[in-house]
Predict the structure.
Amino acid sequence: MMVSFKVTDGERGGWTVLQVSGEMDLVTSPELRQRVHSAVADGRHRVVLDLSEVVFCDSSGVGVLIATRRLMRSCQGSLRLILPAQGAADSAHAHHVNRVLGALGVRRLFDVYADLTTATDEAAIPLQAATPA
């Protein structure tokens, strides 16, 4: 069965929210990269990537996340990721991106939040704060 890839663009509390679902791979990752670049080109420098519906992420998907982080830092922007909390009900795929980022040792590069409410709350503390690099 083919899993469709989709990026939905929204706004919440001054943040641009890109909700990603499906598989982030060599074929689909360029679309996400383009959507992020378009947001930044439009002057939107506070971006939340909601990855809670991503069922698969390969190295090209991770590459887009790292490139997005670099881009946001270069324009003094902010990037937050939403990854499902451990023990999420839909755990069959919920932790995939978490596992991939952890296995590659890059999860620490990102400010990670459990849901949209906390990711768009200025006062919220990330589940994991990014370490400066």
About this structure: The chain is about 35% helix and 30% strand. The two ends are 39 Å apart (CA to CA).
